[in-house]
Amino acid sequence: MNVLIVFAHPEAHSLNGSLKDFSVQQLKNAGHQVQVSDLYAMNWKAQLDAADTQAPLVGEYFHASLDSRFAYEHQQQAADITAEQEKLRWADAVIFQFPLWWFSMPAIMKGWFDRVYACGFAYGVGEHNESRWGERYGEGNLAGKRAMLVVTTGGWESHYSPRGINGPIDDLLFPIQHGMLFYPGFSVLPPVVLYQVQKAADARFASWCDTLATRLDTLATCEPIAFRRQNGGDYVIPALTLREDIAPGQSGFGVHQKR
Amino acid sequence: MNVLIVFAHPEAHSLNGSLKDFSVQQLKNAGHQVQVSDLYAMNWKAQLDAADTQAPLVGEYFHASLDSRFAYEHQQQAADITAEQEKLRWADAVIFQFPLWWFSMPAIMKGWFDRVYACGFAYGVGEHNESRWGERYGEGNLAGKRAMLVVTTGGWESHYSPRGINGPIDDLLFPIQHGMLFYPGFSVLPPVVLYQVQKAADARFASWCDTLATRLDTLATCEPIAFRRQNGGDYVIPALTLREDIAPGQSGFGVHQKR
Fold it and tell me: Is B2-227 in CATH node 3.40.50.11240?
């Protein structure tokens, strides 16, 4: 397979840097082609703004989605955005690796999504009518590709457990896994989460690599999270609420996953 | 009151820009002192990295929390970080206004939290022992201050309803409201969320301003969200799981709020 690793950590010698290097080697040893977008090393521009289009503005003022769509459709995006989109087209699987900062990804990676996910590429795709509400949540330009998060936390596993104070890790990752990955079409694999990584990191490194290796070795075969497809019949269109007869009386992130 | 508005939108002439201007005027008219951190206008640096400290590195390599703590404690932080911390100390209330991009805040605002929330200032505060696990989730350096989100979305309100496909808006905002605001001590007010803002924006602008004005007028008096304090007796320390006799059998973000 062709595997892209999108990586966000400011220090190459960190645990995250070492885990990323291990992943590259493990994937290459298994015969995969690997590219890495090391966002800090690339000095990735995080903020979406008018410099992201080389075309004249569509309207009087910069408009994030209108100007993004125009630039995308007319091959006038900033070169760094086009390059990342090309990597996504090339990839069969994409791994997003980052330390959990403030219960989400580092700003530099959020800026990768904000900018690379152009209108017409990752959203605003497909027709909106009575039976389909665009191509998203299971359909779209990234359909057929796999995505997986590799996340490290300083906090304890119990703090991220179903009744832990930080909130359950699956719910904290839902806006990313469902909202950023499933949305443009990715099949989303269960995440690799390594907890409390500042404790005894040297002693535990080999065990973390084992965990990671197991998941990398099954990147092509592992069963994705069973998020419900938007246009598969489970949702009322255009309200996009779950049909009343499915998971009746329940609500929250969990209902959007088949159990 | 002293009110700080932290604002993230790339275009001053946008709806978000107009709403921000309205808020400033409304607050001033009511006699409040107002400062605005307009992150795009300030060309705010989004990525946390070794340039955030002016001190020599604590270890051989850059370490986000160790070097952040050292720089904070020795007055050697980058000047833009210090300036924002000073604004937070000055403020009685802080409003964070942004468009919801990929179910979270724009990268430039995430980078405000990543960098301004230094170790020793917003996390890593207080002692950890058998009855207290640091000062956080209701305690900390920002305790006594109020915070409120003002968020715009392109999507419909039903898409963010309890069974809407995007997930309930309260759950999408939990990592921000609970994880970034309640964590360092803020009392978090219910958010102002304006939906589907790309539809008939001119015709609806006055109504949005009315909604906003009502909330700004009650900034000092409105009841905060009743998140549970970490050290208030509801959690088992150090596992930090909710006590078994509270909301028995329930899990998810909702259990961390008193009903």
Answer: no
